[in-house]
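Record type: ASSEMBLY
Status: queued
Input:
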Amino acid sequence: MDEAPMMEPFRAKVVEPIPFTTRAQREQALRRAHHNLFNLRADEVTIDLLTDSGTGALSAAQMAAAMLGDESYAGARSFHRFRDVVGNLTSYPHVLPVHQGRAAERILFSALLRPGLITLGNTHFDTTRANVELVGGRALDLPCPEAADLDSPHPFKGDIDLEALHRALTGPDAPRVAAVVMTLTSNGMGGQPVSMANLTETARLCRAHGVPLFLDAARFAENAWLVTRNEPGYRNRSPREVAEEAFRLADGCTASMKKDGLVNTGGFLGLRDPDLAQRCELLLVATEGFPTYGGLAGRDLDMLAQGLLEVTDPDYLRARAGATAYLAQLARAAGVAVVEPPGVHAVYLDAGRLLPHIPPHRFPGHALTCALYLEGGVRGVECGSLYLGKEDAHGNPVVSAPWELVRLAIPRRVYSQSHLEHVGRTLARIARHADRLPGYRITAQAPLLRHFRSELAPVPLHEDEHRSTAVTTTPSPEPHPPVAVPPRGALAAHL
Ligand code: F0G
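Status: finished
Output:
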């Protein structure tokens, strides 16, 4: 079906209504939410692109599998089915189910790290970094140089910088490197994939220096798909074969199955090392559940096992990647630049470029997410200075994000072409009067992870004494010009 790259290899059997709201209703809802889209009720949102995590649709076969779920506390049939499917895919002999990806991260890093130890990675996802730091470790990102250029069409901007990795594995801190973590695809870097050449060389370096290599496999199938499309030597391979090879290269993985497991909740930790597996199993029993259910219901394990069989279907992956490419195309046509090339799980809009009149401390990404909601009932997530920046007590910028982005993540098997076209039309309407969009100021700040809970208010253009033209290109009028933080995890989803 090459002539119809977006045509889904499924039809709908069960549907869920989505609300159509008026502009007045959306204005009222946004005011009530203190201009923070996390505070909206989901039934006030028409197209919800906040995340692709746990938001996908189940297949008929998964629903049928749920009915076979065995809810025995220990040794359930569901666990054995799940373990066989994961074992066949990954080749890892030890498979520990968990309720979601970050639980696998917490267990692995609690068992592996102690204060002062380091993990290296292409770009750690937020929760991965948090779980490394919670046990006193340090997570260092070594993204390849192309990743810093949002416009570069380089097909594998999720690669790790191999020279930097080599330096880190041979330099003065080498004895403190406890693991390398490769995130497939790199959510912290715009959903960009990792090439098999890069992963193979990373594995070789890790082996040579006696450091274990782990995959963060949340989007392993989407990574494999992009490898079969764009990497020489892999064009005749199936996504399943590529995925199996990727897992084989590593010593284990943490995996949120809310993405490429095609389930609403679930995850697993896969390991080769029996001693490490035993230490992890103790933590699993104490914090998640008995090793044959790990915080999941038997029916969850069965749905997950079935999801893992479905997710590497080339027709499914082609349609999904086609939908993302189509949304990126609609954004470009509307005059909104996106992080290039678009990956599979999300399109990242360049709000900084669209709204040069809004300085970072007035949150251009946030302004665009509010406009998307007000204009079309679309919910995305800010990945810019609201998330990564800092201001002083007077609201003057101290640190800004390197880019002001908005992530539109696409739930799996949920939205149709007409839904994406609604997002495209909404963007086009916004872009036509982009210079009139207001910035925002924080009125109540949350002490931690402020983007979740902070309250904001629009700053009408004529009232904003801080108004400047493109802060990156024009000298800032601020007493404290914003300092860009390094591009570490800047494109992450921070959920
Ligand atoms: N690793 C990656 C690459 C992720 O994107 C996520 C979650 C996790 C680990 C943690 O998994 O949510 O199951 O505990 N990402 C979501 C997102 C939240 O919206 O991108 P989890």
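Annotation: Residues 51, 53, 100-102, 125, 127-128, 183, 187, 216, 218, 256, 258, 267, 493, 495 surround F0G (CB under 6 Å).
Annotation: DSSP finds 17 helices and 17 strands in the chain.
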